[in-house]
Amino acid sequence: MAGIDAGRAPISTAKVCVPARHNWVITRDRLMERLETGTRGPLTVVTGPPGAGKSVMAASWAATGRTPGPVAWVSLEEEDHRPDVFWDLVAAALERAEVANVPRRSAREHDIFCAQLAFALSGRLAPVVLVLDDFRPPAGSDLARDVARVLKAAGPVLRLVLTSRCDPPLPLHRYRLTGEVAEIRSGDLAFDEEEIRTLLAHHKVSASPASVGALRERTEGWAAGLRLAAMTMEGHPDPDGFAAAFAGDDHAVVDYLVAEVLDAQPAAIRRLLLRLSVAERFDAELAAELAGPEAGELFAGLVRENAFVVPLEHGWYRYHAVLGAALNLTLRHEHPADVAPLHRRAAEWFSRAGPLEEAVRQAVLAGDWPYASRLTVDGLAIGRLLGLSDGRPLAGLLRGIPDHAAGVKEPEPPLVAAAVALDGGDDEACAAHLARAERLLAGLPDGHAVPARLTAGLIRLVADCPTRYEDLRDLVHDLDRLLDDIPCTPSRELPELHALVRYAHGLLELRAGRPGRAGAEFKRALPAAEAGGDLQRRRCLGALALAEALQGGFRWASHLTTRAGQLPEVSTSPAGRRVTAVHLACAWVALEDVSLDEARDELDKVRVANDQSPDGLLAALHDLLAARLDMAAGRPDRALTALDAIGEDAAALPWLHRRMRLVEAEARTAGGAPEAAMKAARDAGGAEGAVALARVHLHERQPAAASRAVRPVLAESSAPATARVEAWLLDAYLAYRADDRSRGRRSLERALRLGEREKIRLPFAMARSWLLPVLRQDPELLRPHRRLIDPLGPMPRHPPEPDPDGAPAAVVGQLSTRELEVLRLLSRMLTTDEIAAEMYISVNTVKTHLKSIYRKLAVTRRGEAVRRAHRYRLL
Questions:
Q1: Which pTM value belongs to this model?
Q2: 639: helix, strand or coil
């Protein structure tokens, strides 16, 4: 060529021309635009690992005709970075691109040639693009310095494009400061899903969106890996299945990477590359641990010069996913005996310097389950296995613990096996493993194995929470003592464990019948639970809502259940456990809001949740609430049956027994058994018992006795909100009945205000028949409380006819569907026997319905019941 001395060796045309475009290459417009924008400035650097598509991209762009000037292309190899060879190639490439006045280069005067070249290029009017493909001169070399000088001296004419596996040894920081360098990195070169679809379509492969996504994730968009996958999928009988399984251990990928990356490395670097493949991430210290002290010097060069090593942060790195898998497979093939010891060394290193999950992962990969179990228990990570925090990766790692590992003479493996079994829903296996661990712990001296003892107690609390107050008290006290014995450090703040123990304190107060103190404990647990997992947060919110509901605070309980409802209803563990307390509180809130269908749905969920995680107290509360729901639906016989289902242990709790007696009093009253109802009400005692007793007196048409019974509750500000609402309602009814409308209005207004504030609607629904007509006659009282009253149903168009004594008709509850059917047959003058035959029920059941109808309509005879039902348009 004209610009080269005649004595120089001939230059291959292939090295100084733009590579031909292959038919399998797809045009990636976003990268073409990046190069077009970059070549408006002096320097464009394209870096990426082998097979990332650097050369293909640059060649495709050069062929588009969107370049700012002629393109001179140099394809470099390692030996081409000698100055004499390199500048000959550059001169030849410029001449081939028809760049005029390229100077001749003498054999030894590189400095003079570079100056002449820069001068010749600076005199051009139009830019020229010089692409140096695979430019990798040694750092600090004369060649790197001369290229930088030429680029600077040539001015704006020379547009240099460098492709390389790592950053070229040019002063890139200066170009970055002045905004004169465009950088295209491996992340930019990675294929996105749309480009993957285009590539597969080019190979006539039809793949599902899930398969495209899997390929993108597994290859990280690496061009060569995708091309190899597409070639295989082209004739594959199950391309989607292949895409789902494709990884760095595919033989074609391994062969490519071994040839392009591994075999090109010196022996020491090759050894380091293979040994680091046992870790998902690494730094210089871990490299020295796995490959010896000499690895420290090699590590800096490895991460600088190998584009398959991806920087993370704070000095940490990882392999590109495909390379990591290929290297690990190569290590297992070439040095199988080294794999387990390397994983064990990595586990010990991470146990001292890294996150617990990584130490446990390495121990599991080493097959050392006892060590993995000790790391987990001593690291107090049991909360992550039990779903108390968002540590699901740890649960996934230990889920495969074999039975033989749990059978050792150390308590930690069976404890981990118990937690894994509990997380997976295998309660029987959990109990067996936990029993073995507790036997082993019993044989150790006091004060030893504190983390293991704490772990056993926590598993016991979650797996089989004691129903008896004394047993739970002893367990909670043991957990408190063990937590105190563990020093609190920044790495051992353990919010999820403290939240669980505080939650247990709340359960203890709940079993003692102190819902106020229980709520205070649950509130203390909540901030720590918020730092944990969804299950822990949902459990604390549900328990707190339940404590509020037990105190009649349904406004706050509703708020808490709404917050809990924003979290996943089912835990992410394989067992998918629900949180019983949340559904129980939701059912209670729904019942007080007179959303009976919703309450039934929530109670069904309570039953399912309690089957998954049995709790005698919550099961008893379910039955108690079911009985109250039956009463709201007008089924007192079913309410009594539900109360009978409550277990003896729970029924022995004084506060729960008292609540059962309250529901029983209501059911006995509705069933026409006033003496039994009075006994149950007096046995219950307190404000709620007084209200229940007043209802019995009212049913027996003893308004004076009812007024005396309810009067003390009206002055008791500490009584539960539900009791006060019902007391003011009863007082209002009695006042209206006595034609004391002024007192009736005052009492009714207080009931309405308190009911609306605390979101208590059920007592108003039960009094609907007399309440709505009264409010219709008093729009000033109704208007501010429409949100509370409107859901109860439309106002009657006409007020009911007054009783002979001038008081409004006394209707103390809404008739059920069965009662309305009995009333309809009654209006046809059928006898009790005929009604029983018509409805296919017993005569005694008909009599029970009649008593309830008479009570609700405040009548004593059939004819009067039919007439009043017509007045209220019930027929």
A1: 0.70
A2: helix
Q: Taking residues 286-312, what's their average pLDDT?
A: 82
CATH number at residue 350: 1.25.40
Residue 574 lies in a domain: no
Structure tokens at 90: 């550059």
Q: Residue 572 has what pLDDT?
A: 59
More confident residue, 389 or 684: 684
Whether residue 275 is found in the same domain as residue 316: yes
Specify the 3-state DSSP secondary structure of 569.
Answer: coil
28 torsion bin: left (phi>0), alpha (psi -120 to 50), beta (else): beta
Strand partners, 160: 43, 130
Q: Which residues of 754-780 are buried (b: 16+ CB within 10 A; e: fewer)?
A: bbbebbbbbbbbbbbbbbbbbbeeeee
pLDDT in the model for residue 107: 54
Pairing of strands 181-184, 43-47: parallel
Q: Is pLDDT at 560 greater than 80 in this prediction?
A: yes
Q: Are 536 and 496 in contact (CB under 8 A)?
A: yes
Residue 266: CB atoms within 10 A of its CB come to 9
Q: Are both 347 and 334 inside the same structural domain?
A: no
Q: What DSSP element (H or E) covers 353?
A: helix 336-353
How far apart CA 702 and CA 158 sit, in angstroms, is: 108
User: Which residue type, as a one-letter code, is found at position 483?
Assistant: L
Tally of domains within the chain: 5
Strand partners, 181: 43
Closest by alpha carbon to 193, among 218, 174, 170, 175?
Answer: 218
Q: 754 versus 241: which is more confidently predicted?
A: 754
Q: Among candidates 665, 670, 593, 664, which has minimal Cα distance to 635?
A: 670
Mean pLDDT for the stretch of residues 858-869: 79
The answer to whether the Cα torsion of 8, 9, 12, 16 is positive or negative is negative
3-state helix, strand, coil in the chain (%, to 5): 65, 5, 30
Q: What CA–CA distance (Å, rounded) separates 846 from 208?
A: 64
CATH number for position 93: 3.40.50.300
Residue 107's domain comprises 13-189
d(CA 168, CA 651): 80
State how far the Cα of 202 lies from the Cα of 490, in Å rounded to an integer: 55
